[in-house]
Each structure stands twice: as structure tokens, then as C-alpha cells.
Amino acid sequence: FAVLCRGSIVGVCYGRNADDLPTPDKAVDLIQQHNIKYARIYDANIQVLKAFANTGIELMIGISNSDLLPFSQFQSNADTWLKNNILPYYPATKITYITVGAEVTEAPNNESALVVPAMHNILTSLKKLGLHKKIKVSTTHSLGVLSRSFPPSAGAFSSKHALFLKPLLEFLAENQSPFMIDIYPYYAYRDSPSNVSLDYALFQSSSEVIDPNTGLLYTNMFDAQIDALYFALMALNFRTIKVMVTETGWPSKGSPKETAATPDNAQIYNANLIRHVINDTGTPAKPGEDVDVYIFSLFNENRKPGLESERNWGLFYPDQTSVYNLDFSGRGAVVGMPTPNSNGTAGGFNGTTKTWCIASSNATQLDLQNAVDWACSTGNVDCSPIQPSQPCFQPDNLASHASYAFNAYYQQNGATDIACTFGGTGVRVDKDPSNALFPSVQTLLHRSLCLGSDAMHFLNCKLVYFALQAMITACI
């Protein structure tokens, strides 16, 4: 039950395709220093497995594409591998996932037919050891497994992978394993900048992309791509399989034509990604649904082929210094330039002018109630102060309660334009709204408490007045 209710997690991919990396012990120390609790490795290297022992870090380990043939052919190969590569280190090394092959549909050799038989053999080996409920088996995919991803509701798997996908999805559903996907909005922007805005790719968009089939609103490409997968799964009637993002990130350096590969953009993407995931907002099609994410990657890897960006996805340089600052707790403000107000100054906490988010006077009661319900549940706003007998319950009307919930969400999420939409029921203001929203309370306080003639009585009343005034302001 605790695992089911743990919420979304953020991990890191520890790739080692480099000749200048620190030892595994030092790499794991670095992971611990940044309070990262989840990691993905791409093989079962003994030194790496030993380094993770007794750290409490949950580890995803991989079986390479080159090993799929022997694993798919003979059960004994899977048994032997598990006996030699897992059992000596488990449970001191907390292995929770085994990925059998990686992005096989993109591999130059067509090895997809080997994946599911190999997964079955690994699962059988785990069952023999009684570990099949503690270690889940799956395989990773690129977004190329879809033939269509936009709009999200039209998401569909490519028919050329049908023979591979049908038994795979049946395996995942039967064993409650996740569909693992590697998602990179960076590539979508780099390859099609005229169709994809940089802000949309970086979680910074102040506008919304509407799915014409569902009416769902998307403010970032990450959510849209995940929902495309969910719709593709639903189209094949696989509604119980969860999506897990096993790689995502942004490069900090690229070739001359890769102008978006910068440290600033990498920091913006990953910081906003972490906050988005940790807040458990889910996606428009799956509000509140956990989305586990692994950021690629821990280090820059100098042996990776291809464009310059391929060698610069790391959060850290090989000398263990940071490429850019990143808060893995998700509690930091949304990263990026604040949206200017009409007077040219920046709004929210990031600028010089404080702003608030309140209920629009044009919103219907039904729309307001739906928005409040969302903010107090999926939006993770603590709405206990607007419950009966609590400090912010009065005035007891929907507009007041909505303003409380809207502003709490708005301030928690960086005070950006997009954090005050609520389907058109929220509006940003740059004047403290407490006086306008609580006029009767203000008048009552002043008249009933502070009209006494006795000097001491008057002083005491003023103290009470200011205390209650602060309480009212806190409710906004």
C-alpha cells in the first residue's frame, strides 16, 4: 500500500559511455549527496552493483540488446545470469526493475522478436526465486514506437510494430509492469522549430494547445507525449498499463546548429520537469496520475557518437562539478523568465511586483466549483483553511473560497501566467485583493473593536485588529 501511494518519483540515469568518469563509489556518493533515491544503469556491472549496496537507492538495471538472443533461446541462460548478477548483491542493492533490451524498434538489427521471449525467461527465473513481485520486468521504447502523437487523443502505435507490441502489452498488463518510454521534447523542438515553440518544450508556455477531439488543454510537450501513449494504449484496450519515463532531459551544449542546447535551457527544462512531476499533477488526460521519471543523465559521456549534444546531456562533469544548479526536491520556484506585467515589471515572486490570482467575476458557479475541486485535489492545495469554522471560511461564498484556492496554487507554482488560468476562471491582479474581498469583515473589525474611548482598551483593540488583518491577508 505504501508503494502504491508513494507519489511520483524522479531518478537519474547513470550512463558510463565515457573514459573519464569517476569510480562507481564516487558516482554513487554524488547521487546520495543530491538526495536522489532512484537510479537507472544500463547493465549489471559488478562494481556498480556493489557501489549501490546499502544505500537505499532503488535501482533499475538493464540487459543489453546484444544479450537478447541467448536470453530468449534458453531458460538456463536467464537462470544463470540472475544467479551470477543479481542474487549476490540483492537485497543489499535494492533492485526494483530489470529492463530487457532498449529501444529495440530503433536498433539497426531487428531484434524486437527476441524481447518478449527474453522477458518471459527473466520473469520465470525471478518466480523461481520468489522475487517476481519485488522486481518488475519491462523494456524501454523511443517515441518512434508511435505512428502518430499529435493531437494526443489521436496517439497510435505504428502498425509495423504490431507483431511485437501485442504480446508485449499482454505481458505488461498481466504482470502489472509499466510501459517504459524515453521522451525528449528537445529533439521535437530541434528538428521542427517552426512547429514546436521552445517555451512549450521547456514547460514555460503561457498559452495552451487544445486537443480538438477532447478539449484538453496542454501547456507543455512532455504531458502531450505521455498522453499520446495513454491514448494509444487505450485504443488497443490496455487501460491498466502505467507509463514510466525512463529517459528525458536536455543537453547543455551542442553543435553550431543546435542553438537550443545551452546550460540555461537544460536547467530550465529539468528544474521545471522535476517540479511538475513532484507536484503529482499528472497529465490532462490522467490528472493526479503518478509519472515516474528518470533524467538523462548523471554525467557527460565523451564516447557517445553523433552530434556534439550527444556528449553533453550530463548534470555533472566527470570531475563531479555541476554543469548547472538543479534542485531535486522540486520545491524551488519554476525556473525561467517571469512574464512581464502591463507596466513592464515582472510579476509573482520572481520580480519586483507582487501579484495574486483570484476568481474571475465572469466565471459561472459550476466552472468555479470544478476549478476549486481540481485545485484542492489534483492541484495539491491545502484547502483546510476554507472549511467551516476555519480561519478563511468567511466570507462563506464560492468566489472567496475559489480565490483562496487559486492564489495558493498560483503562489506554489511560481506565480506565472499559466498557473492562474483554471480554465478561464482565474484572473491575475497586482493589488492586494483582501480589502475588496473582505469589506464587511474589515468594517466590522474597525467599528466593533476599535471605537472605544479608553486609551488602553483602544490599544488592545488595535493589536487585535492588526492580528486579524494579517489573518485576512493570509487567506489571500
What's the end-to-end separation, in Å? 36 Å
User: What is the subunit arrangement here?
Assistant: single chain
| Number of E strands | 14
* Helix/strand class: alpha/beta
Enzyme class: hydrolase
Organism: Linum tenue
EC number: 3.2.1.39
Keywords: Cell membrane, Disulfide bond, Glycoprotein, Glycosidase, GPI-anchor, Hydrolase, Lipoprotein, Membrane, Plant defense, Signal
List keywords for this structure.
glucan endo-1,3-beta-D-glucosidase activity; alpha/beta; 476 residues; eight-stranded parallel beta barrel
Give an account of the 3D structure.
- There is one protein chain.
- α5 (112-128) runs parallel beside α6.
- The longest helix is centred in the last third of the chain and has 20 residues, at 455-474.
- An eight-stranded parallel barrel has the order 1-2-3-4-5-8-11-12, surrounded by four helices. Strands 6-7 form a two-stranded antiparallel ribbon.
- Helices cover 35% and strands 13% of the residues.
- Residues 1-5, 333-353, 438-459 and 461-467 have low confidence and may be disordered.
- The protein is α/β, with parallel strands linked by helices and 476 residues long.
- It is built from 15 helices and 14 strands.
- β4, α5 (112-128) and β5 (136-142) form a beta-alpha-beta unit.
- Keywords: Cell membrane, Disulfide bond, Glycoprotein, Glycosidase, GPI-anchor, Hydrolase, Lipoprotein, Membrane, Plant defense, Signal.
- It is an enzyme of class 3 (hydrolase).
- It is a lipid-anchor; GPI-anchor.
